[in-house]
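S.,

Sequence below, as promised.
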Amino acid sequence: MEGLDYLEYNFNENNVLLLNIAVGIIMFGVALGLQISDFKTVFKHPKQILAGLLSQLLFLPILTLVIIHLVQPQASVALGMILISVCPGGNISNFMSSLAKANVALSVSLTAITSTIAIFFTPIGLACWGSMYEPAHNLLRVVELNYLDVLITVFFIIVVPLIVGMSIRQSFEELAQRIEKVMKNLSILIFLGIVIFAVISNIEPFIKYMPFVAGLVILHNLLAITVGFVTAKVFALKKSSVKTLMIETGIQNSGLGLALIFTFFGGLGGMTLVAAGWGVWHIISGLVMSKIMSRI
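The prediction came back faster than expected:
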């Protein structure tokens, strides 16, 4: 995989802007299904919320770092894995929870909370965990990443759409419910479009390098699902909530990851492969997992 760290992709500034807008639209669709009461669940069911947050925000990044130190991947691949681990829950996690007959209310609450705090957690998490693997730390210094710019970008493509979507839900609930049904399907199509466009535009490097990264992405995702399961069991959660934590920890917002990679890292080698690979694989693993869970 020599040269992967500095592999360049065919993705210009207009493409990057469209990518950021697409992620914003996806988050707007998520927000239409959220209400202020979803945040109040924290106080009603603190144990399961705490378990979910620890699983996603602490245990997943720690596990990611352990995998990285064991496997010793190239810097850009490691950085991509770290970025995915500090992204909020994916936009399809609520849909997957519904399919799995899991605790959908918990899924929605965790999505709302992790998406909101992503403005701080994602940039800080990337800097913190990235500094604990020397090759990734050195690469961050070479890129000279401005974390304030990352924070501002996350604010506009995650927090602003959340505020607008939730405001519409609060003021025009009937309208929001109608739009939400369309946006759920549209969100998945937009995300798949992002990944497909990135792959088609750069088919040669994807064909050449993806086989080296695919196994690591699958392993990372499966271990993330396991982290959700173990955490839920340690907290003695009900079966429906165990399912939810597995889904929430295994499905990350790789769309946000791709947006940040192309905006601040110029589509840096292994980072793009990891985020794109995760984006495709977590849909496959999520659907399979949900189908199995629905029968349990």
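Residues 10-293 form a domain with the Na+/H+ antiporter like fold fold (CATH 1.20.1530.20).

Coffee later?
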